[in-house]
Amino acid sequence: MIEQQGKFDWMLRDLYDGVPGIEMIVVLSADGLRIARYSGDPDAADRVAAACAGLQSLASAVSQEIPTSDGDMKMVLIEMNGGYFYLMAAGPNAYLAVLSDVRCEPGRMGLSMADLVARIGPHLTSPARRNGQTV
């Protein structure tokens, strides 16, 4: 997939500028391919995108064990020494991932990510693929 960096620059920059402590923002497809990124190393963004595919799959599987859940993953937050990792569903087959340092307040980040997704979610989608081809 060709990275659509230019299409998302201003949207991702707004999130980056609006929340202190963001290190990297990655938009990715459900199968772990980077669609766009803001800040951070491109190779690191590819690794984050690939890891997110497994994480969103795991979160969806766990979600299915909650009787009132529809099985869809909405958001994952991981607190680590030195920072946070956020992963949020951003549209059909697309996700928004953010890495931040400890200055970032998780509640503010969650609201800022949800606002971004609500405003531009239709643009943060990725077509389904089978065997590397768009279906």
UniProtKB/TrEMBL annotation:
Pfam family of the protein (one): Robl_LC7
Protein name: Roadblock/LAMTOR2 domain-containing protein
All residue ranges annotated as the Roadblock/LAMTOR2 domain in the record: 9-100
Lineage start: Bacteria, Bacillati, Actinomycetota, Actinomycetes, Kitasatosporales
InterPro entries xref list: Mycobact_SerProt_Inhib_Rv3364c (IPR053141), Roadblock/LAMTOR2_dom (IPR004942)
Gene source species: Streptomyces lividans TK24
Taxonomy, superkingdom: Bacteria
